[in-house]
Amino acid sequence: MKKIILSSLAIFAAWTAVDFLLHGVLLRGLYESTAYLWRPMPELKRGLMSAVTFLVALGFSVIWGRFVGVKTVANGLRFGLWWGFVAGVSMGYGSYAMMPIPHVLALSWFLGSVVEGVLAGVIAAQIDRGQ
User: Cβ of 58: how many Cβ atoms within 10 Å?
Assistant: First the structure.
């Protein structure tokens, strides 16, 4: 249980950093050009966004800890790649199918999810191995 909590916290921190870089820096102009789609900054539910990010990190850690048999970095990469692919299809292209967002935004969400998944897999494997 200790490794799951440590992994969840580390993944949460990593995802928060990647989200800041991706959404707050790299995609900032794109979000500004599509401002009509988003809540105004003062109305963002930042606490909820953090809670959701932590709960998804916890879910990742629990599934890794309970259902992945051999805890190697290579398996962490593979698990994270699949996690990111599935999350990215849903986040990027599921949203693109329903919202009038630019394709580059859908692609960015997809690729960002893949990067975050791989990063989480490496983190979980390293913590599980005690490194």
Answer: 17
